[in-house]
Amino acid sequence: MDPQSAALLAKDIGGGLATIGVAGAGVGIGNLFGAFVSAVGRNPAARDTMFRDVLLGFALTEAVALYALVIALVILFA
Amino acid sequence: MAGPTIDALGQFRLETGMGPLGRMIDFSNSNEAMLASAVIIVVLFAVGISKGALVPGRLQALVELLYEFVHKMCVDTIGPEGLKFFPLVFTLFSFILLGNLLGLFPYFFAFTSHIAVTLALALFVFVFTTGVGFYTHGFGFLKFFVPAGVPGWLLPLLVPIEIISYLARPVSLSVRLFANMTAGHVMWEVFAGFMLLLTASFGILGAFASIVPLGLNVALVALELLVAVLQAYVFAILTCLYLHDAVHMH
């Protein structure tokens, strides 16, 4: 294999590997909403006040997944 | 390979806007979107509160809702001193919100999907909050990096960690907003590209099958609407949290 296509191949493999980080965010978001559901089950009255914090936590956790995306984009296009 | 390809990042390309005048002063489509969102905010609020009715109409209710929402967020997060910073937080919130929402429309440019823009906003917030910290506490603000109630021998380890996590704030603040908006728009582009690819490779059958990516794109509009509002909220509330740290030191 000539070096140029080897570099392209490595680039694609690296971009794919970078997306593994999204698994952690999946665990995080699942944890977050799981805890929210069980908390609402115990105290349904607190649902609205808790949901605001859940949304904030969701956005913060989701952003971690997007860091992986940024790394993948940097590997692929930069 | 002939036929349609997916050009996922082409939508973020900067072009000069405003005709020959824009070309002369390098006025890009990103600047157009920023100007549009700033003008929309000002006009919305000027028209919304011009009547000042005791029983608000629709527009006035919207404007008051936004105002009270950010006002409450400021006071709840920063404390009573938060009122001083309310204009800044409100400006950031409405500017980012309008930028995100304008970017959702087809053929509109989402200026928050450029790291240069979000990094400029985040660096401003970072420098400003650090300045507020030093202004309020003088050099005592440096105690912020020394966690309280920790045995002395741990400090050489903890202080650098605190400093690094403090310096990472502008990075995480800017990348969060930029990556969220970019990812959403790239997903749209990819699924829309699937429709073209399906039609090009399977003809009429593919055109029927492309209703699946179309449906996904419709669902993504709802998600992106949520993300657009949520990210503006997150940017604003993190600004509030940083200001709280600067004012109260813990």
What's the gist of this structure?
Chain A has helices at 3-18, 22-42, 47-77. With 78 residues, chain A is an all-alpha fold.
How would you describe this protein?
The complex is a heterodimer of chains A (78) and B (250). Chain A is mainly alpha-helical and 78 residues long. Chain A is built from 3 helices and no strands. Chain A has helices spanning 3-18, 22-42, 47-77. Chain A is rod-shaped and about 65 Å long. In chain B, helix 2 (29-48) packs across helix 3 (58-78), helix 3 (58-78) crosses helix 4 (82-103) and helix 5 (115-137) runs antiparallel to helix 7. The longest helix of chain B has 41 residues, at 169-209. Classes of the chains: A mainly alpha (78), B mainly alpha (250). The A-B interface holds A 55-56, 58-60, 62-63, 66-67, 69-70, 73, 77 and B 9, 172, 175-176, 178-180, 182-183, 227, 230-231, 233-234, 237.
Helical proportion of chain A? over 70%
- Largest sheet report of chain A: none
Portion of residues in beta strands of chain B equals under 5%
Distance N to C terminus of chain B: 59 Å
Q: Rg of chain A to the nearest angstrom?
A: 19 Å
Largest sheet of chain B: none
Helix content of chain B: over 70%
Elements of chain B, N to C (H/E):
HHHHHHHH
What class do helices, strands and sheet pairing of chain B give? mainly alpha
The chain pair forming the largest interface, with residue counts per chain, is: A-B, 13 and 15 residues
Strand proportion of chain A, as a percent range, falls in under 5%
